[in-house]
Design brief:
By secondary structure, this protein is of the alpha/beta class. Helices cover 34% and strands 23% of the residues. It contains 15 helices and 24 strands. The protein binds S-adenosyl-L-homocysteine, iron/sulfur cluster and FE3-S4 cluster.
């Protein structure tokens, strides 16, 4: 999925807040989220579960009785950030102890899953290590810590279904919400830790997803982004026991009244089925945006990555998707400097980018991850070459994004407003193509969709004027 280097989850933390059944907050939790959208979703659900236990969310770690780092293991830098953060938190814990206050430090997410007890060895101030499949047990594990247990490590994949064990969704303040429908991955790309940290591919049953979606929409959500490490491989059990595809799920969800927009991420090119492509033509609630990571444009590198398709196959797939939905905005992830990547391989990536024309992208230097096959390949690419290739690739991608945005100037797009902007009197939302759009308007339009005449564009955002009827 469009992995985001770090998400400042503090704002997001406030997005879901108290429901009526919750007890008044007597303790405070601070959550910091690293990594992808699925971690953002997991953090929200952890906070909702903790609200039941009397935890209110704080954006200041110094005030927190419980600190959770929800971590990402995808690249070395992401994992190392966790340890430097833990070093700071240890000092904070010592300071609070001198004041007579207890602070529980928990490490959740993919570093927790990958490194387990090693985390408490490297940083003994950590009380609890909890994997992505176990966080529904968080309240009871925190209970054990407060009764004096320390260094608890919970990283087994449990028998029970975490989703069934979590409380129902709380009231959301953000009109756009994530909903995890599928977890794990069986693709085993040779660079990637996800199959090891998130386990095998599992789809949630349709009824379960529908129930959560209805609850979210009833509490004010207008847009749902369905999440999965490999979301287009979704094959959840339908009400009649038969398997339902992602297109089928989108179709059912689009029947929910009040829900205006649907998105999904991340997809694998090999699982882009005919019915899903057709949904982009036929389902009016499905937004014209697709994140379809290609990683490289070189067939040799794609094969070494175990991506299971060629550059030509990807381009043909893009052509079919564009035939179904000509205005679709395309997005991708790229890795430069994969082991063995030559200048010619890298240029094949630039060629593919020129052939597609992307609306927005994420691009990364290859990072060797312990335990993955590519990490031990002999022909690692020197750091300086990776840096140079990434800069060239990003130049091209940024110019494509700027061009995509500029093409909207003078047009009118429907915008779902999500929050206040940085400037007084400004609100911010998203176009159907996932562009950020700024407009001057009162905050009571947040949660509503309005036509916006786009007046100017930059590489990252659009701004415009709301059209009145
Ligand atoms: N299923 C998602 C995976 C999320 S990881 C997907 O296929 O997109 C998000 C992105 O991180 C990947 O697409 C890839 O571009 C990048 N990535 C994964 N492992 C990496 C590594 N070892 N080094 C650099 N980038 C990596
Ligand atoms: Fe990782 Fe590949 Fe699975 Fe994506 S498809 S999560 S890159 S193994
Ligand atoms: Fe990172 Fe785990 Fe997501 S490794 S990208 S947080 S699935």
């Amino acid at each position: 999925m469009g992995e985001i280097p770090i998400i400042d989850s503090r704002k997001r933390a406030q997005a879901s807040t108290g429901v009526a059944e919750e007890p008044p907050a007597t303790k405070a939790v601070f959550v910091k989220t690293f990594g992808c959208q699925m971690n953002v979703y997991d953090s929200d659900r952890m906070m909702e579960a903790l609200a039941r236990e009397g935890y209110g969310v704080t954006d200041s770690p110094g005030d927190a009785d419980l600190i959770i780092l929800n971590t990402c293991h995808i690249r070395e830098k992401a994992a190392e950030k966790v340890y430097s953060e833990l070093g700071r938190l240890k000092q904070l814990k010592d300071l609070r102890r001198a004041d007579g206050k207890q602070t529980v430090i928990a490490v959740a997410g993919c570093v927790a899953q990958a490194e387990g007890a090693e985390i408490t060895t490297r940083q003994p101030a950590v009380d609890l290590v909890i994997g992505p499949q176990s966080y529904h047990r968080l309240p009871s594990l925190i209970g054990r810590v407060s009764r004096g247990e320390s260094r608890i490590v919970e990283t087994e994949f449990p028998q029970e279904d975490k989703f069934q064990s979590l409380p129902e969704r709380a009231v959301q303040r953000n009109p756009s919400a994530f909903l995890t429908v599928q977890e794990g991955c069986d693709k085993f790309c040779t660079f990637c830790v996800v199959p090891y940290t998130r386990g095998i591919e599992v789809s949630r049953p349709v009824a379960d997803v529908e129930k959560e979606a209805r609850k979210l929409v009833a509490s004010g959500v207008r847009e749902l982004t369905l999440l999965g490490q490999n979301v287009n491989a979704y094959h959840g059990q339908g009400p009649d026991g038969r398997s339902v595809s992602l297109a089928g799920l989108l179709d059912r969800l689009s029947a929910i009244e009040g829900l205006a927009r649907l998105r999904y991420t991340t997809s694998h090119p090999r699982d882009m089925s005919e019915d899903l492509i057709a949904a982009h033509a036929g389902n009016p609630k499905l937004m014209p945006f697709l994140h379809l990571p290609v990683q490289s444009g070189s067939d040799r590198i794609l094969a070494a990555m175990n991506r299971k398709h060629t550059a030509q196959e990807y381009l043909r797939l893009i052509a079919r998707i564009r035939a179904a939905r000509p205005d679709i905005a395309l997005s991708s992830d790229f890795i430069v400097g994969f082991p063995g990547e030559t200048e010619a391989d890298f240029e094949a990536t630039l060629d593919l980018v020129r052939a597609v024309g992307f609306a927005q992208t994420f691009s990364f230097k290859y990072s060797a991850r312990p335990g993955t096959p590519a990490a031990t390949a002999g022909d690692q690419v020197p750091e300086a070459i990776k840096t140079e290739r990434l800069a060239r690739l990003q130049d091209l991608l940024e110019s494509q994004q700027a061009a995509f945005n500029a093409a909207l100037v003078g047009r009118v797009v429907p915008v779902l407003f999500e929050r206040k902007g940085r400037h007084e009197g400004q609100i911010v939302g998203r176009s159907p193509y996932l562009q950020l759009v700024h407009a001057d308007a009162a905050a009571d339009l947040i949660g509503q969709i309005r036509p916006v005449a786009v007046r100017s564009a930059s590489q990252l955002t659009l701004s415009g004027v709301i059209e009145t009827a």
